[in-house]
Amino acid sequence: MRAAVVTAFGGPEAVEIVETAVPEPGAGQIRIKVAAAALNPADAGVRAGVFGGAGKRLGLGWDVAGTVDAAGVAVAWAVGEEVVALSYGVSKSLGAHADYVVVDADAVAVAPASVDAVHAATVPLNALTAAQALDLLALEAGQSLLVTGAAGAVGAYAVQLAVQRGLAVTALAREGDEEFVRSLGAGRFVSGEVAPGSVDAVLDAAILGERALEWVRDGGVFVGVIPHAQPASVRGVRTDAVEVAPDGARLAELVALVDEGVLTTRVAETFPLEDAAKAHARLGEGGVRGRLVLVP
User: Fewer Cβ within 10 Å of end Cβ, the chain: N or C?
Assistant: First the structure.
């Protein structure tokens, strides 16, 4: 089968398409025939060596939508079921950017019925990150939340999930994104250098760090999206950062919200798997609204 991997760190040109053996699922695992797999900034980080792993073959791709192709022992999934999953990890030898991927069965959920595989592939990593970040914030209905990077993939899901939880959401994004983030349910919009005022909490999807921390009230909460990279606590503000974890049950809840119209999937552009390097180059150009998706 074909797979996108990195064997030496660098720019988009470091992404290689190699021929490799089809992986076999072990106990508690399934193999998915990939129909679509989103490209995320985490993949660019792996490619550039941000997470280490020099000298190893590193597989790319966290998000997958496809069909169960084979199952190991002690697995309830049946061959032929359409699913989505999070292929977790920055040091795996094969990822979801391939013809087939093996994942733990408990990281899998039935695919949404309301969108195609390309759109479904944008859900696992970003929606789970947003949901688990909101869990860390532990806010109650009526409290105020600022989401930075609200027009991005994680930020947009965070806005919609926060609104569903009854939070008063302020969205920080570019001027041109105001109509979009308001359509997600944000009650207030701010952009550029305009300070949003004091809020109970910040979900920092734009990775503004200490600047965003300034907007949290004394004793509030700050949660970032880069593990272990949150700013130090000040003024009694609790600071934390989400480290996404695979969770098939939670993913199933998020899929249900897609089917209910609560969560909006967005695809910016698709690329054939063999053009993975071109997709990385496009991601590096910036300004992408929605996810780039690879299709084997």
Answer: N
**For residue 36, is it within any domain?**
yes
Distance CA 86, CA 89 (A): 9
Residue 182: its H or E element: helix 178-183
Centre a 10 Å sphere on the Cβ of residue 19 and count the other Cβ atoms it contains: 8
- Which tokens belong to 49? 């060596």
What b/e sequence results for 212-250 when a residue is b if at least 16 CB atoms lie within 10 Å of its CB, and e otherwise?
bbbbbeeebbbbbbeeeebbeeeeebbbbbbebebbbeb
DSSP calls for 105-152: GGGEEEPPSSS-HHHHTTSHHHHHHHHHHHHHHTPPTT-EEEEETTTS
φ/ψ bin of 159: left (φ > 0), alpha (ψ from -120 to 50), beta (otherwise) = alpha
Number of domains into which the chain is organized: 2
Rounded CA separation 40/243 (Å): 15
Supply the CATH number for residue 115's domain: 3.90.180.10
Q: Is 76 exposed, middle or buried (0-12, 13-18, 19+ CB in 10 A)?
A: exposed
The alpha carbon of residue 190 and the mean position of all alpha carbons in its chain are separated, in whole angstroms, by: 23
pLDDT tens track for 93-145: 999 999 999 999 999 999 999 999 999 999 999 999 999 999 999 999 999 99
Q: What is the pLDDT of residues 171-227, one digit of tens each?
A: 999 989 999 999 999 999 998 755 667 899 999 999 999 999 999 999 999 999 999
In degrees and rounded to multiples of 5, residue 137 shows phi and psi of -65, -35
> pTM for the whole thing?
0.95
Q: Are residues 189 and 226 in the same domain?
A: yes
